[in-house]
Amino acid sequence: MIERRERKPYWRHTKWQMMASLLPFLLVVTVFPLYADRLNSSKFLGFPLGYFLTGHGLVLIAVVTVASFVNRQDAIDHWHGGHENL
Amino acid sequence: MPLTSRTHLVNPRLGIYFGIFTSAYAALVLVLLIFEQLGASDTLIRSVMLAGPLALYIAIGLLAACSEPLDFFASGRRVPPFFNGLVLAIGAVGATGLVAGTGLLFINGFDGWFLVISFTGGFVVMAILIAPYLRKFGAFTVPSFLGRRCDSRTVRVAVAAITVVPMLLVIAAEVRMGTFVGSWLTRQSEQLMAVILAMTVLGAIGLGGMRSLSWSNSAESIAVLLALIVPVAMVATAVTNLPFAQLSHGPILRTLVRLEQQQGMPIPLLSPLAFDIAGSGLEVIAQRMTKPFGSVGPLSFILASLTLMAGVAAAPWLLPRTGTSPTVYDARKSLGWATFIAGTVMVTASSVAVFMRDAVMDTLVGYSASQLPEWFRTLESMGFAAVYGQVPRLPISSFSFHRDAVLFALPIAHGYPAVFLYLALAGVFAAAVAAVSLSSLALGAVLSEDLINGLKSEPAPNGIRLLAVRGCIALAVLAGTWLALLAPTDPLNLLLWAIALSASGLFPVLFLSIWWKDLSSFGALCGAIAGFAAGALTILAGESSLLGVPGALAGVVGMPAGFGAAVLGSYLRPSNSHQVLELVHDLRIPGGETIYDRETRLLRLRQRSRPL
Predict the structure, then answer these.
(1) Fewer CB within 10 Å of terminal CB in chain B, N or C?
(2) Would you call B128 and A58 a contact, using CB atoms and an 8 Å cutoff?
(3) Residue B395 — pLDDT band, cuts 50, 70, 90?
């Protein structure tokens, strides 16, 4: 069980993790489609690069974002003792 | 010892059960394939392909019947992350997202990707901002969470009334798409297919609620994955020598780009706020496959992606699923699986679109109207494709296709046996069943828990509770089906409106209720009502062309309104008691007992100790 005085640092840590996971993701969602046309002249795996990044690339980045978030947030839970006792 | 041990154990044999289901499904398809080659009647094959899997889904649902509220509303909190993610992903995408999404990517090319980004990104936002905290709280519906968090019955009832609208829209959209696909598969009337769809949903989830839904939807989702991946993997093996269509169609795409350049397809110049996606009817292929922003302007593309993402993250028909995870950690993990599966499904849909465009370029463009191949004639006779003009070498602009037929045109265009078409149709029908089950269960739970039983201070006895929710689920399915048959609207529009409404009405309040402890009950009330009203008015104004904003972008108006009103209301009437602050602190930390379960337990203890 988490101690009372650990709650504040726990939540500060969690807030930073939230921003560290979410802001880069929202940034690439905004930026990739805008540059897709310019990147389309190069190719990757045979795909036009801009198309690949907006389509497959964002899906890949989404999966990596959640995976790293789950891993980091779990580490934060354990560090502050806020994890579930299983 | 605190009562935090993992009391809800996961069934270790789930993998075996669903392995058996997958083999049975594959065996059914193979047997039908043999029967087709042996010359069995087409009607027989069509009806077995529809009825066989439906009987399995209903049987799975009936086998998981239960009579405990925790089982009925939260599947006993013992669904492992993979299955939870599978159910979430297929329930969110549904038949509409699959069929209309493929069509969008085919007709609008690059601009259809906004839909993919909103589904996958929506799960990312849900995983990081909302889902773990809702799981820690453990409420069965979104309004009961907000009502308890703000300690206000008014908030609970108001939010319940707001969530009804998007969920009804989703049910209507899925029923429309399901009846379209079902009547193609069986050649029966849409009314009959709507009745079959509604009966399947009621049979599958009527007795066991969320517990039945977990397992019958898992089976349906496996059918959806097979239906989507098998035909496209066969085409990919034939065309690119690799079965992984998602990653191997790059060279095809570049050939396509060169051919489109030779055809001189126009590159339209649009205003940044243009939003002109394909409707459900015959549409000319308007745009080059990889050229961005030919029908959706850059600003609309990004705004639509971001607001629809928020809408998916706050979707009241998806969030009750987070409560079925055994732990908060598993809830986060299940959203990871949901992101992965939704992304894979939509990327596969995009490869279907590319292979279809390749088939169009290869076998239609450049020939005269009398030389067109058999598969195009088949589609034309069904009303799903058309050709205009009598020139000897037809350009691409003389062909038009039905948006919702593209996914199923692929096996027809490559001349595969009819069973592969039926496999795809039956799978998409299963997706419609899955999405209707998910949203009608959520709607039934809101109606019974928050509007009928929620007005009393103590929960009703278990028997009455389950009776009420079963009645409300039936009511929800009937109302959605009635709406779908009454108002023939484009299902994709209905789905986009529903997501936009949940982004405007629910996302601001849900986000602030977790991340801002000063959100007061008055603030939550203002935020939900203002956001929903702004979103709904934008959609109505856009539909009656009073305002140039399309319905899918309603969140752009609704979300700021919701955030602004919630913050303003909380500053005007700050009202958080010590108990509410303590609840918010408890909500934010994964450890400890699930809040809802603890409160139910304490309530039961108090009832028992009271003298009779």
Answers:
(1) C
(2) no
(3) confident
Chain B residues in contact with A83 (beta carbon < 8 A): 329, 590-591
Which residues 129-148 in chain B show a CB within 8 A of chain A?
129, 132
Q: Above 50 in pLDDT, residue B3?
A: no
Closest partner residue to A84 among B328, B335, B344, by Cβ? B328
Q: Which of B121, B333, B585 comes nearest A62 by C-beta?
A: B121
Alpha carbon B479 to chain centroid, angstroms: 18
Q: Taking 80 as the threshold, does the pLDDT of residue B458 lie above it? A: no
Which pTM value belongs to this model?
0.95
Chain B residues lying within 8 Å of A42, measured CB to CB: none
Give the pLDDT of residue B62: 95
What pLDDT, on the 0 to 100 scale, is given for residue B180? 94
Residue B77, Ramachandran bin (φ over 0: left; ψ between -120 and 50: alpha; else beta): left
**Which domains are assigned to chain B?**
14-76+89-136+154-307+327-489 (1.20.1730)
Which stretches of B446-603 are assigned E, i.e. beta strand? none
Q: What is the mean pLDDT of residues A39-44?
A: 88
Q: Tell me the two tokens of residue B212.
A: 């039945």
Test A63 with B340 for CB contact under 8 angstroms. Answer: yes
Q: Hey, is the C-beta of B241 within 8 angstroms of any chain A C-beta?
A: no
Tokens of B327: 């732990």
- Which residues of chain A neighbour B339 with C-beta distances below 8 Å? 62-63, 66
pLDDT digits (tens, 9 = 90+) for B74-120: 999 999 999 999 999 999 999 999 999 999 999 998 999 999 999 99
Domain coordinates of chain A in residue numbers?
4-78
> How large is the ipTM?
0.96
Contacts of B20 (CB under 8 A, 6+ apart): none
Rounded Cα–Cα distance for residues B176 and B482 (Å): 10
3-state secondary structure of A44: strand
For B515, name the nearest residue in chain A, comparing CA atoms only.
Answer: A15
Looking at chain A, how many residues does it have? 86
**B262/B265 Cα distance (integer angstroms):** 8
pLDDT at B153 over 80: yes
Phi and psi at A85, nearest 5°, equal -85, 110
| Cβ within 8 Å, pair B332-A81 | no
SS3 state of residue A48: strand
Q: Which of A2, A39, A63, A69 should one mutate to test binding to chain B, selecting the residue with the greatest count of B CBs within 10 A?
A: A63
Check if B573 contacts A (Cβ < 8 Å): no
Q: Which tens digits make up the pLDDT trace of B157-180? A: 999 999 999 999 999 999 999 999
Predicted pLDDT at B7 = 52
Judged by CB atoms closer than 8 Å, whether chains meet at A29 and B336 is answered as no
Of the candidates A48, A70, A83, the beta carbon closest to that of B333 is on A70
Tokens representing B11 are 């069934």
Q: What element of type H or E holds B385?
A: strand B385-387
Token pair in block for residue B130:
């909302």
Helices (H), B187-327: 190-205, 209-240, 245-248, 250-263, 298-313
